[in-house]
Automatic annotation (TrEMBL):
Lineage of producing organism: Bacteria, Bacillati, Bacillota, Bacilli, Bacillales
A single MF term (Gene Ontology): zinc ion binding
Positions in coiled-coil regions: none
Annotated Gene3D superfamilies: LysM domain, Zn peptidases
Name listed for the protein in its UniProt record: Peptidase M14
Protein species of origin: Paenibacillus crassostreae
């Protein structure tokens, strides 16, 4: 929500009037000099939306203020053209409404378009989040990263490395929404006050690493060629893509990292396949390259990759994981009920590479239980189990 600066206004005044933490106002307006607001300048107020109201006969600012439970000064700030003593019938004014509930939609099979729609909505309401593209998929879809917070500890979380594990994306999107909601309302999640965590932790989220694969599983083969014919051929002519983990070229993105890649490639398919094909070499695919470049250009203290299924957490790789990994995974297990597993009979995964090259904690969280893609009926339970892990990643 935008307001226009009046004579004598300051960000502190807006913080008090809208009951929004000053730090969030500063982060929502990075180009504004706090001590130098200029008359007529536009300022973003996070955590609010506006509705239109048409003035009728007999309306006064006091009556509108009372009807919508909005301070008069707030109404005047949002509607600088209003003449208090001569409201015009038919005039449209903006009424501010504080956002107090989750706005994202996670009640249907969730594809790339759903994610973009939700991220755009969240970005409009909460302009202090920082969104950018870290690369594009084979089919040219941008892969967005969201950053939130400004603390020295950097935590990276991603989801949907695999197409038929798309349910992990709405888990991250809903968490993002609840975190933003708590921040702007000075609230808490499970008794944890969020604003101190915002100041100590910078959270990086890539909610959908494999957008082409997700759309393939959720919506069926694309209309574009040559992708349509190629994926049908890889899938033996079948239009059932429920078993598809790979990207649109039939490469398993979580078998793409230079951490014993040769070993993983030797025991998987030798040609493109719905799952497990490691490619012709490490990091051949644009999606895996995007995550690798993001990691190299950041300073992540730990990484979490959300997958399905099994209700387990893998946390080691070849004995290279630091001692703190065990402390963290035990807390993850406590809050989620998931089983920690130190080593898995696999390699070339994202968390493997991170542990190997940075010697910092990396985790693969396998949410839910059953056959992929997991049904939406599991989403609420998966979210509640994942929520404890996500909160722990902020406070530990």
């Amino acid at each position: 929500m935008q307001v226009t600066v009046r004579q004598g206004d300051s960000l502190w005044v807006y913080s008090q009037l809208f009951q929004v933490p000053l730090q969030l106002l500063l982060d929502s307006n990075p180009n504004i000099i706090p001590q130098g607001l200029m008359l007529g300048q536009t300022v973003e107020i996070p955590g609010y939306v506006t509705i239109g109201y048409q003035i009728v006969s007999g309306d006064t600012i006091w009556r509108i203020s009372s009807r919508y439970v909005v301070p008069q000064d707030m109404l005047l700030l949002l509607n600088p053209s209003i003449l208090v003593n001569s409201l015009r019938v038919g005039q449209i004014i903006r009424i501010p409404r504080r956002v107090t509930d989750v706005v994202v939609n996670t009640v249907r099979p969730y594809d790339y378009g759903d994610m973009l729609e939700d991220l755009t909505l969240l970005e409009e309401i909460y302009p202090f989040i920082r969104r950018r593209s870290i690369g594009t998929s084979v089919m040219g879809k941008e892969i967005p990263e969201i950053r939130i917070g400004n603390g020295p500890k950097q935590v990276h979380v991603n989801a949907s490395f695999h197409g038929n594990e798309w349910i992990t994306t709405p888990v991250l999107i809903r968490f993002l929404n609840e975190y933003l909601l708590a921040l702007t309302n000075n609230g808490s999640i499970r008794g944890l006050v969020m604003n101190p965590l915002y100041r100590t932790t910078t959270l990086s989220l890539v909610p959908m690493v494999n957008p082409d694969g997700v759309n393939l599983v959720v919506n069926g083969p694309p209309s574009e060629e040559p992708y349509r014919n190629e994926v049908l051929a890889i899938n033996d002519g079948s239009s059932d893509f429920s078993g598809w983990k790979a990207n649109i070229r039939g490469v398993d993105l979580n078998n793409q990292y230079p951490a014993l890649w040769e070993r993983e490639a030797a025991r998987g398919p030798r040609t493109p396949a719905p799952r497990d094909y490691a490619g012709t070499g490490p990091l051949t695919e644009p999606e895996s390259q995007a995550i690798a470049n993001l990691t190299r250009n950041s300073n992540f203290n730990r990484v979490l990759a959300f997958h399905t299924q099994g209700r387990v957490i893998f946390w080691g790789f070849e004995g290279l994981e630091p001692p703190e990994s065990e402390v963290i995974v035990n807390e993850f297990a406590r809050v989620s009920g998931y089983q920690p597993i130190e080593y898995a009979d696999s390699s070339a995964g994202f968390k493997d590479w991170f542990i190997q090259d940075w010697r910092r904690p990396g985790f693969t969280i396998e949410v839910g239980r059953g056959t992929n893609p997991l049904p939406l009926t599991q989403l609420e339970q998966i979210y509640q189990e994942s929520l404890g892990i996500l909160l722990t990643s902020l406070y530990m």
